[in-house]
UniProtKB/TrEMBL annotation:
GO BP term, example: tRNA modification
InterPro entries: THUMP_dom, THUMPD1-like
Domain THUMP: 142-252
Designated name of the protein: THUMP domain-containing protein 1
Region (Disordered): 1-24
Keywords: RNA-binding
One example GO MF annotation: RNA binding
């Protein structure tokens, strides 16, 4: 059984048997750990299923991250073992990597949950080398290709490129930083007008005006590119959640 199948089988088992385990959701770091400058994935789930959702996210994300990145990318890697690996050593090598990852300090691991203080929403913080947009895109592409559902409790995945506080100045500054590589990396003589759409989602916050938010994001993109809500080349999703703003850019 592959590493992916083992993780999937653990999170797809009988949910009743997991009630005796220590809850992940309520034992994680408090809301103060939710701060600007972090990246991760927002995950929605059914009420009172947050613990199971987080455990499932750990298994799911780790399995796919192993396919995208080197298992030990976040720490120093010695290539000698990989170069000398023999066919008969696959099992021993896999076990050794699993044990090495378990022994790594918590801060060096690829994923960590942070409490949102809201029912039905969990947040999985990502660490280097994981790129949230890349990870979620890979998961959804695999789901589309295989038609095989690999989750029971996770409903929607929203990758978060970076966070900031919910004031217009910080939002615009972050928008310029995140969006610039997607809109302004072409050579002048090859520059094409990109069609884009802005989708703001505001939850548990009454301080941000929706239209003002859209206008500020559009100003960060600039007048050269074109708004197209029907068939955009790029979709800019802005998640406003409590005191933090979550900005995500993804090509369609």
């Amino acid at each position: 059984m592959s590493s992916f199948q083992k993780r999937y089988s653990r999170s797809s088992g009988n949910s009743k048997s997991k009630k005796s385990k220590k809850p992940y959701y309520r034992k994680q770091s408090n809301f103060a750990a939710f701060k600007p400058g972090i990246s991760g994935v927002f995950v929605s789930c059914a009420k009172n299923k947050e613990d199971l959702c987080i455990r499932e996210c750990y298994d799911l994300f780790d399995a796919y991250a192993d396919l995208i990145y080197k298992p030990d990318d976040s720490i120093d890697v010695v290539d000698e073992d990989e170069a000398n690996k023999k066919i008969g050593d696959d099992i021993e090598s896999t076990i050794a990597k699993e044990l090495a990852q378990m022994k790594r300090p918590h801060t060096s691991r690829r994923f960590a949950s942070i409490q949102t203080g809201t029912d039905c929403v969990v947040f999985i913080k990502t660490n280097h080398p994981v790129v949230p947009v890349q990870l979620v895109h890979y998961i959804l592409t695999d789901l589309n290709n295989t038609k095989q559902k690999k989750t029971r409790f996770c409903k929607r995945l929203v990758p978060i490129t970076q966070t900031c506080y919910t004031n217009i100045n910080d939002i615009k500054k972050l928008a310029e930083e995140v969006l610039h590589p997607h809109f302004y990396t072409q050579e002048e003589d090859q520059k094409q007008r990109i069609k884009y759409a802005i989708i703001p989602n505001i939850r548990n916050n009454n301080k941000v005006n929706r239209m003002e938010l859209i206008q500020q994001i559009a100003s960060a993109v600039g007048d050269y590119h074109i708004v197209n809500l029907d068939k955009p080349d790029l979709v800019i999703i802005v998640e406003i959640f409590k005191v933090l703003n979550f900005l995500f850019n993804f090509s369609t």
